[in-house]
From TrEMBL, chains A, B:
CDD domains in the record: DRE_TIM_HMGL
NCBIfam families: PRK05692.1 (NF004283)
Keyword Metal-binding set for record: yes
GO molecular function terms attached to this record: hydroxymethylglutaryl-CoA lyase activity; metal ion binding
Full protein name: Hydroxymethylglutaryl-CoA lyase
Superkingdom assignment: Bacteria
GO biological process entries: ketone body biosynthetic process; L-leucine catabolic process
Amino acid sequence: MKDTTAHIVEVCPRDGLQNERRVVATEDKIALIHRLIAAGARRIEATGFVHPGRVPQMADAEAVLAGIGPHPGVALIGLVLNRRGVERAVATGALDEVNYVVPLTDSFGKANQGQTTAESLAALPVVRSMAADAGLRTTVTVAVAYGCPYEGDVPVARLREAVRAIADTGPDEVAVADTIGCAVPADVTSRLRAVREVCALPLRTHFHQTRLTALGNVHAAMLEGVTVHDASAGGIGGCPFAPGAGGNAATEDLAWLLHRGGHTTGVDVDAVTRAGRWICDVLGVPPRSAMAHAGPFPTSHPPRGPG
Amino acid sequence: MKDTTAHIVEVCPRDGLQNERRVVATEDKIALIHRLIAAGARRIEATGFVHPGRVPQMADAEAVLAGIGPHPGVALIGLVLNRRGVERAVATGALDEVNYVVPLTDSFGKANQGQTTAESLAALPVVRSMAADAGLRTTVTVAVAYGCPYEGDVPVARLREAVRAIADTGPDEVAVADTIGCAVPADVTSRLRAVREVCALPLRTHFHQTRLTALGNVHAAMLEGVTVHDASAGGIGGCPFAPGAGGNAATEDLAWLLHRGGHTTGVDVDAVTRAGRWICDVLGVPPRSAMAHAGPFPTSHPPRGPG
């Protein structure tokens, strides 16, 4: 594999936090984002514009964005599920990008966002247009693209058709998301190839560690030329409407893996490990990353040899 | 990737147990092996013939093998580090195979087995000959083939030279082992290709989950045509002389991943998950596999949909 640049989209402030029981203070969310920027994050899903009654952790979306301040070279993303979300996102004046979610199954769509796949696809053109009018990029995440917690396996043909419909609306990027952590590397290869058949747009991955496949899945995606990957500092995360979903791929683990494979990411592994540990302390949960436990290899302080 | 058969070598009774503090009763070790056979294991590293003062968990090697009984179609393996180990292994009359360890660094070799790489290689022909005289296969595991806990990165040229020397002695198989869990999939691809340049023998992998890369590493090996992989039920294991090493790839996780990728292994994921949980209960430690926590996907009992 040739040396290439890989890109990590830091989703800890949104996907990382949204499923945690303890609601984090607004100033701590802002401090987290500052720590992530200091650790090299250049694209950050900072918050979600979702119903505060359904996801209390995201109720302070506007206040978080107001507190981040200008950071040239850093793109901030807001997750949106509908027109109302885009209106709120645009009104902040603080975002570079909205990330719109299209569920690949109606069961998950109804649970996650009260929409079927068709309803979500139907609203995409207006979402795209509202964002474009405000000068924001629109990226689209296909949720449960590898499998659904309610329906199990989802035919690849359905993914191909959904991506074709999404591509027709001309977003800036499409993420093929394993929302629940059921994908294996062989699935990644076959599904990304299927998506490529109908979509020439830039692609992004999103993997969870539910079944410990996330790092291998990213490697499989890199082999397909997909170089942009969501990850969460500390490996926290999971969807409140995706039962059993484990944490996101940990940013520090993914960056270490990519660096060892000859890629650059711009992420400082030690610094993002510390940021992950810090937010986990705030949440009162243990960090889930391998870097937080075993640390990187090689280490600068190997154990003393046997003499 | 075409559908192929993959093979899992079950190392739970040896690599899985050897680093656990609680010494397991001989009858529980025998019961574990019987559970693993019932779950589909057909090649099992049953014990190690090592110094009981250094690895107390393996002190009852002969008694374990005496208690297993005949199981047609199941190959039992004994780990050996020297002539004395082979003598003991042969004397049991219960084994099909000895697995001899060649350390790729002198630092690890002295810590693990009191031998340098050169000393270990020098003893291999006689080990091979003693095993052959007793009708046993000899397989050779190259330890710390991806990196050393004491020396850090190990040049690929050193691996190539060690494997060339091993291949010259004509063993039945060579395992390229990531003893400490530092390999990423890109390393697997490059090192297995380097090994292939000098060795036409069957190859085997051995990965640890220290940095959550084991499943992706196996997938990378499968893409290189290497279809035999060590794994441990419950994901337990680690080397007492490899500081910081995490558990082995869990058999149940690996079997699930391989099945999802279109391969057959003969392993019953649910049964080996139960076997892993059982031995972890005996040890008083939590199982480390994803299957023991999240379970397989798809599940036969999906959560109730949103209605």
